[in-house]
Amino acid sequence: MSLCSAKKIKMKKTPDAELLARFTAPMPSVEARQALGKSLREKVPHVQHAEYRPAARRKDPVAILEEQAKTRLQNLVPIRYARMLASPFAFLRGAAAVMADDLAPTPVTGLTVQACGDMHVANFGFFASAERNLVFGINDFDETLPGAWEWDLKRLAASAVVAGRFLGADKVLCEDAARAAVRSYRKRMREYAGMRNLDVWYSRIDEAGILAALSPEAQQGARRIMAKARQRGHMQVLEKMAELVDDRHRIVEDAPLIVRETHTADGRPIGEALAITLGLYVKSLPDDRKPLFARYRVVDVARKVVGVGSVGTRCWVVLMSGNSSEDPLFIQYKEAQPSVLAPYSGASRWKCEGQRVVVGQRLIQGAPDIFLGWGSQSETDHFYIRQLRDMKGGAEFDPATASVKNLPEYCKLCGWALALAHAKSGDPAAIAGYLGKSEGMDEAVARFAAAYAGQTERDYDALAEAAKAKRIPVAKARESI
């Protein structure tokens, strides 16, 4: 009996029968799905995406951050605020929860993807594929959750404007950067819509593709970043983060950012906590990775402050050694809390928030870390583990060194990477059909980005006022860098 003939037979409604029916039902064509996407323009015209109007009862952005701080390590919260106060761009990076609340009421088509949830221009970079080739893509997945593709795209475009202003770009260049990100997203999505499913899944943004997409001037900067990324391996981290003490490598402390603790925040000895953590983590690894990880032994462990928005969550670095001291492996433990999108998209279907992060990363990154894993030690203590550094690198947003005129070229790469992530997890044909071939969506989202950049600057000012009024604790500059 063929599968096709099975459809004609009356079957009881069992889970197996429903599954069979789903996989034997005709799949709508690419053209039909593009037409469906195009029809959504009647419901949500492109021009509606240009609007940003703060809600009449918009939540206090400082209050949103204070609520998040309640679940963070209290002695590190002042560092988070200090890092966010470095600039409006730093504020945007740490305020994913604020923007999620602002994006929730904006118009959406109803087409969903595995959203990043914290999409901004500094959350992209190079990393090594399993074949040891450099690829470009999204590199932060702490907030990933199924959600509206428009939210990621609008946050990316807004970040382009905020970053541009921070780097000293004028209004025209800032809006060009936002427009470049959206245009690239639109054009690449149309390409992915016409490709075979497996071809989309196996697609990578590799070195050759990056260089081909950039102008000669921008290529020079890309080559420098890629060369630096190739040097950023475990040996480089060993030289930078560790020192020899009695013929044994030890992680160098740099309080309060890197600290060797004897006990965890809940009072458990570090050795006991680490043993439990690694035991849970190993269970989550694919069976083919377990023998490789089993060849390493723990040498040292320290608590490490990372990022901007993540500051205050529990984060540890573990130095491990393989065949010799010259065979290091650095893994990073990161606490996983509920996504900032959860109040608007719904809670994760994964009971472990660490698993949510890992599954999301595997789905949309394309060439994820071979040591990605997760675990949960209680109903509220969830984590994931990854390599600390494996040929990872990205653009630096430093006004003193950045070539601001190349920002639109860089944003073009970011739009491409976001399109690939969404094409892997959503329906590229429907999204492409909605976006269309005109520049209507490019212009609309660029206008939104400029308006939201103004909101970000006002929110940054509000945080600065809260610091001045002693409403929030702020670490001294030297303690937060």
What does this structure look like?
By secondary structure, this protein is an alpha+beta fold. It folds into 2 domains: 285 residues, no CATH class; 154 residues, no CATH class. The chain is built from 21 helices and 12 strands. The chain has a 6-stranded antiparallel β-sheet with strand order 7-8-9-10-12-11, sandwiched between helices. It has a two-stranded antiparallel sheet with strand order 1-4. A two-stranded antiparallel sheet has the order 2-3. Helix 3 crosses helix 19, helix 6 crosses helix 20 and helix 9 packs across helix 20. The longest helix is centred in the last third of the chain and has 29 residues. It is globular, with a radius of gyration of 23 Å. It starts with a helix and ends with a helix. The N terminus is likely disordered.
Task: Name the descriptors.
globular; 481 residues
In short:
With 481 residues, this protein is α+β, with helices and mostly antiparallel strands. It is built from 21 helices and twelve strands. The chain has helices at residues 3-6, 15-24, 30-43, 61-69, 77-84, 88-94, 96-103, 149-167, 171-193, 197-202, 207-213, 216-231, 234-241, 270-284, 290-293, 342-345, 353-364, 407-425, 428-435, 440-468, 477-480; strands at 112-115, 124-128, 134-138, 145-148, 242-245, 248-251, 258-259, 297-304, 315-321, 328-335, 373-376, 382-387.
